[in-house]
Amino acid sequence: MDHKIKSANEAAEKIIEWGVSQGLTTCFERAEKMKPCPIGETGACCKVCHMGPCRLVGANAEEEARGVCGANVSTIAARNFLRMVAAGTAAHSDHGRSMVLTLLAVGEGKTDDYSIKDPEKLLRMAAILEIPVDGKEIKEVARLVALKLLEDFNRIEGKLNYARRAPQKTRDRWKKWGIEPRSVDREVVEAMHRTHMGVDHDPDHLLLGALKTSLADGWAGSMISTDVSDVLFGTPKPVQAQASFGIFKEDHVNLVVHGHEPTLAESIVDVVSEPELVEYAKSKGAKGINLGGMCCTANEVLMRHGIPTSGSFTNQEPSIMTGLVDAVCVDVQCIMPAIVELSKKFHTKVVSTSEKAMTKGAVHIAFDEHHAKESARKIVRLAIDNYSNRTKNGKYVASDKAPLIAGFSHEYIEYMQGGKWRASFRPLNDAIMAGRIRGIVGLVGCDNPRLPASGYFKTLALEFIKQDVLVVTTGCGAAVYGAAGYLTPETAREHAGPGLQEVCEAIGIPPILHMGSCVDNSRILTVASAMAAEGGLSDEIGGMPAVGIAPEWMSEKAIAIACYFAASGVPVIFGGGQSPVAASKEVTDIMTRVWYERFLGCLHFEKDPEKVISLALEYIDKARAALKLKKYEPGRFGTERVLMDMAARRDIGKAAKPHVGL
Ligand code: SF4
Ligand code: MSK
User: Fold this and answer.
1) What is the pTM (predicted TM-score) of this model?
2) Which of 435, 467, 539, 604 is the most exposed place for a label (fewest CB within 10 A)?
3) Which domains occur in the chain, in start order?
């Protein structure tokens, strides 16, 4: 891969280079200038008390170096790691709690701006939570479900309600190793306590604490967030949309929703086509209002409504540099403070909306879920009012966009394998057992300006699908694949191995399935649980031919996700830069070898993308062998692939679809 490029997204690269010619800086130039601290980067710096910061360096640091209190490198690295998990868990789970409070407001009749869009899913949740529903109004069910879900955030003793969704054997492992979480708040608070100066010093014990805390994220905070969002806004099913900077329209008001929680973005989707607002936009000389998304808020409204996305985390500054964005409306997480300064060089207004998240220089319009549409209309009007301030300043290419298909929820993946009456995971399990699909890889998480951003994502996906590995994606990875044009059924024909290609063509799906935002990684957990229940593969999540990869991760949320997958039984590989625990061989050994022995899941940090691929395939093939499945043989299924001209491609459309197991 060419390390001189800043972004492997060609459109982004053009905009970034234009910015450099204009004297503008983005995260890419800042990443070049701001080298990571080599001590903190490896986990060897402790700043949890004011006798420090203590930096444990030197030739024999692992054996000999000690902080002022006597802490060694392993304690410090494990403690830093647990703090990352606690922060990531807090972020996802605070998002999840907001969703539950919105559901409660609907149930209690305190807002008319939201309703129950998927009552069937609400009833399924009530059944999981063992809430009797007979004779109850749907709003009352919503109220009872919301109150029950809140217990998973603040229970003092006991276990997560939602943990019962995991296979029994997976839960038995949690029990055996003492990592069954009680609730989100209890685990996050305990993690902060354990990592305070002078408390928990045993690296293995600290790392079990990391797994326990992360499980509260995966099986409560994030999973609840996904489910409640589906109930309130609709469970996704495939939708067509577009991605990359060309989604902006020169003759429309362009409003972008950026951040994570879907509540406000959904209200903006609701109001943006109201005749009064459209007329107002026209009165200002625009042809209409064009709504787009960025980062995970984009994924939320893309999955449910086909709202286009301008892309991933590293696309936020280039989006503003198109000169076409009239307003960016932000809530929480992954919003670079730099966009406020940058927006001043253009006409763009940055609007903050959360009482938790302010940036100096942004316009603040407080969002209140009890009067959601009122806030949404204010924001749309602000964008319209700003349209006339547009200048010619900016770098925009209208053709920079790609078509995509998103919307692969757990429910739809089940439905697509048999329709309404015979929906199941049997065909997917059968395809894996037969070796048509070698295994499944989740390619998820952030993109990173310290790498050729989005480049590792692209390289890995193409290699995996070529080797008949089905790819599922969420978060910024999904936006990367959307902008690259990979989220289409044609990608199977052009790049997938013959077995995977057959399966994708039989159903008409892409070989890379967009499953949603960062919190929607929980959809992958429930799919894996359903596959275990279906039979024929492993009877727990551990032991499945499946691997999770975050090739370009950067956020603490990503670390929390890695841990809940590892604790649930999935080998996880993080790519990109340095391991945050590289300073301690002991900690690295616990996360890789020891966790795998206990949970069949683990966490590797591996910089070299070639090694990421070979390690992932090794885990997949090892799981296949342990399950006594047919050995994967490349090219065993399908016909030999030939390069096709346009006429041949047209003929494919006319040909009968092959009948295969999925
Ligand atoms: Fe240094 Fe120990 Fe304080 Fe950490 S807790 S800063 S290692 S004295
Ligand atoms: S937005 S956490 S950069 S995936 Fe969810 Fe993207 Fe990573 Fe934020």
Assistant:
1) 0.94
2) 539
3) 10-64 (no CATH), 73-233 (1.20.1270.30), 245-387 (3.40.50.2030), 419-626 (3.40.50.2030)
